Amino acid sequence: MDLKKFLKKISEATGISGFEGNVRDIIQEEFRQRADEVWQDNLGNLIALKKGTEEPENRVMLAAHMDEIGLIVTGLEGNGFLRFAPVNGFDIRILPGQEVTIAGIELLKGIIGCRPPHLQTPEEAEKVIALEELFIDTGLPGGEVEKKVKVGDAVSINREVVFLSKNFLAGKALDDRASVAVLVGVLEALQKMKHNWHIYAVATVQEEVGIRGASVCAHGIAPKLAVAVDVTQGDMPGISEITTFPLGKGPTILIGPNVHPRLQELMVQVARHYEIGYQIEPCAGPSGTDASAIQVSREGVPTAVVGIPLRYMHSSVEIIHLLDIERAIKLISAFITRLDEHPEWKQKETFFPGKGKH
């Protein structure tokens, strides 16, 4: 896989929560080249099965969400302007001046506008512009807009990927398409490695609006183990080092109640054995990733979480480091091949510290 080329392609693709079709088609093409079977479930999750050498009940689920935050049209004004609402997560302060694509009858370009400073009162100029004061301008007259756009159409931010120095990359929707790239990379790596467990790599939908895709998919697959891959907060000026992680130092391995302690320990052991750079990420509650749903699916699924440090989350200029993605691929691939050294995971029950076995 050409990592830079793939990241550019999926970052620039459209696919807000509930409207993931465009990016799903791109990922499906990559999955099909590296998996034995690929299909889409009823909610829109894309599932790739890479078969192992043992019984099919020994299943590992890898999950990363393909949906992105975006906007939805809520009203059409007679003079051709569109009103909109965010589909989760957007910082209203960054919206003015953004270029967008409206998925109407045809794809339509527009920009998000607002009153210029010259037409604002001094009081208004000192405040963040309210969502109600923003609009999308397509440059078309009202009659033309009404023929091409309707209430409920999805709106995506436009942003071309920018390759910065020393393996840094900036773009939109890298939360969480950087992690989708990890799944593709793992499937590719496993083509050259022996693994006994069956691997279900899932590009999930609607994570940004309630972790819905992972919930139904985990129920359908019924994995014995799972690994959720998502982004985590990268370091930046003015933010505590306790809550952020440096880019380029390797992926994070989560520790906390959303993670099975023995899986976390195994992840760390694998990273150390293969000298893969990693960082420990403590999380005192739900991780806010697909793991939150997978962990409590059916009778419970032992789950691990791997994070990709990312700056400026939920903006159109999210920044990642390519080495973190490459190391995450190596970590998860090696983790899968080492599972047979721990036969207890193949049993109906697994063991927590304090439950008789350690």
Question: Topology of this protein?
Answer:
Elements: H1 3-12, H2 21-32, E1 37-40, E2 46-50, E3 59-65, E4 70-76, E5 81-87, E6 99-103, E7 107-113, H3 122-125, E8 135-137, H4 142-148, E9 154-157, E10 162-163, E11 168-171, H5 174-190, E12 198-204, H6 212-221, E13 225-233, E14 252-255, H7 261-273, E15 279-282, H8 291-294, E16 303-310, E17 318-321, H9 322-337
Parallel strand pairs: 3-12, 3-13, 13-16, 14-15
Antiparallel strand pairs: 1-2, 2-12, 4-5, 4-9, 5-8, 6-7, 6-9, 7-8, 10-11, 11-17, 14-16
Helix pairs in contact: 1-5, 5-9, 7-9
Tally of distinct domains: 2
The CATH topology assignment of the largest domain is Aminopeptidase
Tell me the CATH architecture of the largest domain. Answer: 3-Layer(aba) Sandwich
Q: What is the helix/strand order?
A: HHEEEEEEEHEHEEEHEHEEHEHEEH
Strand count, sense and closure of the main sheet?
A: 8 strands, mixed
Distance between the termini: 39 Å
Number of strands: 17
Output the structural class: alpha+beta
What proportion of the residues is helical, as a percent range?
A: 25-40%
Task: Give the strand order, joined by hyphens, for the main sheet.
Answer: 1-2-12-3-13-16-14-15
Quickly count the helices. Answer: 9
Instruction: Provide the CATH superfamily of the largest domain.
Output: Zn peptidases
The general outline is globular
Strand content: 25-35%
